[in-house]
Design a protein that fits this description.
alpha+beta, Phosphorylase Kinase, domain 1, five-stranded antiparallel sheet, single chain, globular
Amino acid sequence: MNNNIKNILLTNFKDYQIQKINNEASHRKYYRLKKNNKLLIFMDSSEEPNEFFSFINIHNILSEINISIPKIYEIDSEKKIILLEDFGDRRFDKIMKYNNIKNLLSVAVDSLIILKKEINFNSSYEIPTYNYNTFKKEISEFIDFFYPYYIKAKIPLDLKEEFFDKWKNQYNELNLNYTSFVHKDYNLNNLIYLSERTKHYKCGIIDFQNAFWGEDCWDLFSLLEDSRQYFDDQYNEFYINYYYLNTKQNNSIQLFKDKYYFFNCSRQTRLLGRWVQLSKNFNQKWYLDFINITNKRLIKCLQIPSLKKIKILYHKLIPDLYDY
């Protein structure tokens, strides 16, 4: 394996030691390059050319604002490879048990506020815009993968139609505005703690190539309602209000929260199906371990009064939802 990597490495880095880094749910390959005290990340996107160019595009945008993202040292557009700054392996999800979760969330939310305040909607950035078709495709993963996995049968047509009708009606009730920059996967596993830096710069942000224009609340619930790690959520209400006040929202706090919980609920719905799909596609059963955490997040979200109709729907789809 290492010999194959050395064959495609840029000339100046062929004498580096190579260590493969495990990467989940992606065809990109990551390697850590080491020589004496110098460390680099080698990203091979040869099997994902579209995401390679998207990564560079989003990196150029994020490089203009005051947050911590890895520097790019070398790019080979023909081979679809990039040499990046190594932020280390102190991912938030790996260190949260040994660190004050409020401190980690604080630097993450402050970085998110910078993202929202300094990137204004600009159609020339060539970032896709979220829409209802994307939304429907995402929640379909629940119907296509989780429901047959859990119920052991295909969903009846009438229930399937009711599922999409209820979600579409709820979607249409909100005054949605897709003009905010969204990282999309602003989760604990994509944030790396940089202890030597100060303030919000301690939060190293990676894996941003799937960014889109969407609702302002998206990245906040991705962080606070992480579907892989269940942590004490006693600070969620504080950070929702803190974020709202520091991003100068045009809507009321209630409308902001309604959107927050609506999209969080749809995301947890999607991820229940996604874990089943990934376990099959990559033959990795450990993805199914995330179902319990995701279900807890979903159950909590369904207690929000504005989601009462969705809650009734889910009790019809999965009668023993609370026992899962």
